[in-house]
Every structure is written in C-alpha cells, then in structure tokens.
Amino acid sequence: MVYRRENSCKFYCHSDATGEVYWPKHEDINRILKVECTPILDGTECPTIFAISSPVSPGTGCPKVLKIDIRGELIEGNTIRGYAEVAWCGGTPGKGVASWLRRKWNSSPVVIVGAENEEYQLTLDDIDSCLVFMYTPVTEEGAKGEPQYAITDYVKPAPPSINDVHIIGDAVEGNTIKGVGKYFGGREGPSKFEWLREDMNSGLVFHLNSYAIMH
After folding, report:
1. pLDDT at 203
2. HSE of 209, CA atoms in CB hemisphere, 13 A
C-alpha cells in the first residue's frame, strides 16, 4: 500500500496503489511517499514494515508506455481494441499515435493503410495473420515517448453465412435469371444454390435443381 504525505505530517492512502510498482503522478510532486508491506506467512499476518521516499521531483515531460495490450475476440468481422497505460511524467496527456500492422506467418509486419485508431475491425485479409498494435504516447506540449507494441494470436475466419439473397433478371418465360447473395465467413468455397418452384394453385413447392458455384 502506498501513502502520500501532504503539507502536514499525516500520510494519506492511495487506494488504487496496492502493487509492488507505483509510478508517481503529477499530484505527488514535492510530496513524500510511503510504502507499507505486510508479510503473510501460512495465513498469519506479520508486523507491517515500511519505507519512505524523498520528495517527488517533477518529471522530464517525456511520456512512457507502462503497459500495452489488445482486447477482443480474434474472429473475422469482430472489432478489437488496443489499450495503452501511459505515465505522462509531468507532461499534459495528449492524443497518442496509433497504428495497426498485419503480420503473416514467417514474414515482416505490413502497415494497414487507414488503421490509425485504437479500434480495428478484422477483415478477410486478416485471417491466418497476427495483428500488431503500435502506440506512441504524445503530450499536448508535443513531447513523444518511445513507441511500444502488442501482438495478437492468429485471426480465425467467421462461420460461413449469407444474407441479402435475391434474384436478378426478369421472371419472363425464356429469360435467364440468377440467384445472388452476400457471402461472409472466410474465403468462399463451392457454395450451393438450389432452385424451387411453387405451384400457385396447390401451394406445393417442387425441387428443380441445384448446382455449386466455384470461387
């Protein structure tokens, strides 16, 4: 647990600082920090020990990425998001520079043109590839930190599906009509089309034929 001392001799608790590592924040400048540790042995708490820092100095103004990761299900069509935790080191938090790259097996990453936000929607081209999220922190004063990146596992295709099925052409005797639809889910294989005819008098449906379309 980390505590910060204000102008008085009293220390105030940092409720969110409970790990081994703590990065001093802007409000900690010129304050003294105190860290406490309570050892636990076989379920029994031992006496608490502590250490006190010297007064916190202002940062360099150059931001640092503390942690970076990518969240979301790696399936075609889904949206994934890159997250970066930044220590601004005295600078004013600004908008960082984000980019996405695609890396196929045994090849170098390639920049995805136009993918410059924290969010990215997976496409057909991403299947069987890894996605790389690159992030460079930038303060409002213009100071840039070192770029950091995170990489995903391989993207999988979505289950095959089709929508917007309709018929093209005039339904007139002697004409040729065509069935079309929008396919989604990996690279399309030999999709199967079936034609049926409904008797307007009886309401019965008759199977005409079926055929596969190769892609």
Report:
1. 63
2. 3
